[in-house]
């Protein structure tokens, strides 16, 4: 357990100084620091994958969605052609250069073997990594953390947001950072924002008991984050009104990652995708959300610099939406979706997965895009080919997953 | 008469910690009569300021049918999806307000009621029979669930508690039993036929969710000796246990169906599976409409349940890893009294383990316990509790916001983490300043909470290091320092 490592180390260092290590020392201790990165973006509410990666060569698509289908490439508001089979939603145009340079890929018709169409169940399953099992206490990203070698720096994993999402819950501590919208990240907590508090509690939490140790870990993470971020960004993050949302947070992550080599995992949860009513087509509700999402991803691509070559970005959602539009210009909860995979090591410029088609007999329960690739297989590729975990470690991240060790999708270079 | 450490221990464990003057008051009593009084609460008797608070909450006290009729607008209008956006926003705000009022009612009583053991058990049993307030109509049912299914039974018979939660619309919807129907249901004239229901809540067969959780979480426990076959059997037995027409009917027909069953428990005969089932070795004939009750009573009386519940109670009240001998004694009482909670608690609280000094101050407070104990310690007026709900959100334990059926844990390993701890310190400093309702608005000056009074209230809890640091802290930060001290993180 990581906390006991910390405890032994600080006791050996002969005291309980608050900052027993310089920032660089963590990098030296932790040989994995500076290796592969993983950013997970969870689109909460079930994004409409059929509007993201548009099957424009299927006539069924246009029959099923007379009002909200994205037109074929070349037409007004048409999809941006990807591979002569699929096109990209026009609001995602910022991603086209990344597609063209082959570091962006999609896995279509992917998702969960569990058929629940409940947001909270399906999100819980995708975050715990155990579809159908409700009692898993932790999230798969935390289990990844536990599997990664070396001592865990306090900022090894960053959650952008106030409450700890299920996906990051678990035995290994995770740092939280405020987004432009929410407070409650470590950067906003006393004593960072209230130096008087530091003076008080630094002198109270001096023991070697777990509570004192947790306090010192927290202070360290705070200190790390504070020096990583410039004062301007801290103030902007703290309360200045902003509508930019994800692009700004993505920029913040880039800065943090470039300055702090111990940050390996990051997580964003973005909402607003549950388009039951007036989803819109090339323009409208969905498009308005896709645009800043793409801009944020483009920000990661541009802003990570040389780190991009060691970073994988996953965009996932708990399920897709109905193939047929509903009576309110929207779509309802579905099943299969597209997973997005972006990053230097990605073999991009390709739509992976086995496309089942939109003919009624190939739809899941005659209503949804089917699932032909288990989401754990896609993440499994990330874990084995990108994060270099072995089979046993992957099995600890996804207990009970179908055996996939030999069946790689090939999204990452060998 | 008791010594102060014991009085503090009782205050911390049989409730949410001392309010000003509590330790002296408890220490002046004898242990037996204090225990007796807490084990026999007059729950209708609340301080005037708590009653005053409850009377300001329009949705408080409404039962599930009333709350549903008044606040669950989606089933009252013919075509909810076509309402204008701002109309919908108003209606959504109104239904979320019901959840907020329920939170206020819970926090007001936890902070202000002198029946502290009862309030601690409300938290315990709610977590045990957890439901999530953001699922569908639970937004408007959450208060009635606690008031009707939990509160009347905190110290009563476990089987009553089990049946009350099993039949409440909140649980029926949360764990999907409302949609648990026989695979082939009978039509009006008794002919089997497929029933087609439209709308979001499409009931199309057996749903095992509740059956599994009631055995795994509510009664026997995960190692209680049931099999998947038992889960399926119990699911079949519980088919037809649903909520009145409102929760599972098509919205377009809703306007015609306004009847007294909406939003209440209903046994849907036509959806009940009449086949014979074998559950834990006992045969259920299937045609008895009370077989669901009988099955649940059988679970309640099962020896594994006695063990499971006793372990959970001991973990909540005594230690994260309770002594097996203690749990064994409690289970024996549970079994011997047919599941009388009061008796089990008496066994627990009079056992040497409970009063062993090595178990004093050893539990790490959950965010709920931390926030409520802070409010009590500063002598907060219960009328001001509303902001505490936001504090709970910030500390990671939103009230009624636990997504999964296993409810919130109560152990250190579940709640101790660097970020959570720092958030508590933020809360402590602000509360020390008088925020979060700690002080009435007009009393909030530059001085904040009186640190001397706070120190007196918590005297037996504060160690030498804490007191020394507090003494050296500028006066206006002392209250925050006390509330954020390691001593106050423990109970």
Order of helices and strands of chain B: HHHHHHHHHHEEHHEHEEEHHHHHHHHHHH
User: Per the principal axes of the C-alpha atoms, what is the gross shape of chain A?
Assistant: globular
The coarse overall form of chain B would be globular
Number of domains of chain A: 1
In percent terms, what proportion of residues of chain A is strand?
A: 5-15%
| Rg calc of chain A | 22 Å
Q: List segments of chain B where confidence is low: pLDDT < 50 over at least 5 consecutive residues.
A: 186-203, 246-260
Q: How far apart, in Å, are the first and last alpha carbons of chain B?
A: 21 Å
What does the average pLDDT of chain A come to? 82
Low-confidence stretches of chain A: 1-33, 231-244
Biggest sheet overview of chain B: 2 strands, antiparallel
Span between N and C termini of chain A?
A: 32 Å
CATH level-two architecture of chain A:
3-Layer(aba) Sandwich
The average pLDDT score of chain B comes to 89
Strand order within the widest beta sheet of chain B = 1-2
**Which structural category do the helix and sheet elements of chain A fall into?**
alpha/beta
Q: Give a count of the beta strands of chain A, DSSP E runs of length 2 or more.
A: 12
Structural account:
The complex is a heterodimer of chains A (414) and B (491). Chain A has helices at residues 2-12, 23-29, 49-52, 59-64, 96-100, 119-128, 140-147, 195-204, 210-228, 231-239, 246-259, 285-303, 375-386, 391-397; strands spanning 37-43, 53-54, 80-81, 87-88, 104-111, 157-160, 175-177, 265-270, 311-317, 337-343, 350-352, 373-374. By secondary structure, chain A is α/β, with parallel strands linked by helices. In chain A, the strands form two sheets. In chain A, strands 1, 5, 6, 7, 8, 9, 10, 11 and 12 form a nine-stranded mixed β-sheet that branches. Chain A is globular and about 70 Å long. Chain B is mainly alpha-helical. Chain B folds into two domains: 46-318 and 321-360, no CATH class; 367-489, no CATH class. Chain B has 24 helices and six strands. Chain B has helices at 4-13, 22-27, 31-39, 48-55, 64-71, 85-112, 116-128, 138-150, 158-167, 169-174, 209-218, 228-237, 251-254, 291-301, 303-317, 324-336, 341-349, 367-377, 386-394, 412-415, 418-432, 451-457, 464-472, 475-483, and strands spanning 185-186, 192-193, 241-243, 265-267, 277-279, 282-284. In chain B, the strands form three sheets. A two-stranded antiparallel sheet of chain B has the order 1-2. Chain B has a two-stranded antiparallel sheet with strand order 3-4. In chain B, strand 5 and strand 6 form a beta hairpin. Chains A and B meet through helix 8 and helix 9 of A and helix 21, helix 23 and helix 24 of B.
